[in-house]
Amino acid sequence: MKSVICNKPGELAVIDREEPKAGPGEVLVRIRRVGVCGTDMHIFQGKHPFLEYPRVMGHELSGVVAADSPSGRLRAGEEVYINPYIACGTCHACKRGKPNCCMRIGVLGVHRDGGLCEYLALPEGNVFSAEGVGLDQAAMIEFLAIGAHAVRRAKIRSGDRVLVIGAGPIGIGATLFAGLKGVEVTALDLQQRRLDFARRALGVAATVVAGDTARDELSALTDGDFFDVVIDATGNTGSIERGFDYVAHGGSYVLVSVVKDRISFSDPEFHKREMRLIGSRNALAEDFEAVLAAMREGRVPADLLITHRSPLAEVPGRFADWIKPESGVIKAMIEV
Prior knowledge:
Blueprint: E1 2-8, E2 11-16, E3 26-36, H1 38-45, E4 60-65, E5 79-82, E6 85-86, H2 92-95, E7 106-107, E8 119-123, E9 127-129, H3 135-154, E10 161-165, H4 169-179, E11 184-189, H5 192-202, E12 206-209, H6 214-221, E13 227-232, H7 237-243, E14 247-255, H8 267-272, E15 276-279, H9 285-296, H10 302-305, E16 306-311, H11 315-323, E17 331-335
Parallel strand pairs: 10-11, 10-13, 11-12, 13-14, 14-15, 16-17
Antiparallel strand pairs: 1-2, 3-4, 3-8, 3-17, 4-5, 5-9, 6-7
């Protein structure tokens, strides 16, 4: 079968691999769509902290069941979405109901080879029916679930003012699901184009371009109080550190993005605000289910999210361009 592998930062190649066979408890899935996200960009750029090369990327996946699953829950020809977080089920985190941060987690496309290929053999428990949505939508469930999980971690309450920093795909997910809570959401990003998209497609209350005047603008929007919940989805150390300044007294700061560096902040400012600092990693099954339900209800503007497409064989020639801000990528979708 054909697969696209990242041999080292900046180098992608199409290779031939043996088609996998489903083992005990596994189901064989013919991959049909692969979404590209910030994690893939970081892998390509050599910025991801949890990865060794070479690696087949791809964790935003949908496909078609190639043969009936062992339990009979999934039938050949059924369209499915994939939860790419393969947990051990026995570690401390798993026993406490948090397989998203399993101590021995194997995330497809990060810790183990992912879905930029024609077939994957996967644990049946990581494959779910996508009934009611199409293959494009099904491949977007995972990144939106990360945003939904961050919003759930934030424990947003009625009347909260929410700031989402970073209007890329993960930020879009957080913005969307914060908005579905019925609260006021402000988006902050370097790119005006992305902010325009957030206003047009997601109905944010306000947008601010990141820069020297951003703090003053955010202060003016909130009468100097700043935001009850701040969610950073930038993957940028400087942005994460600046975000502490935007949290209101008694507020919460949720870090969805991950960077290789240490982060630092003013302890007196952190302490006097009695700020909650929250990590948000991956997503849980209930987050996937929440996204699927929102899609079925027509509450996710999926058609607006996909801005670029490519067949699998052309990915090595297009990937570097998708990283450039001027490319205008919101979500690139690879068709297998």
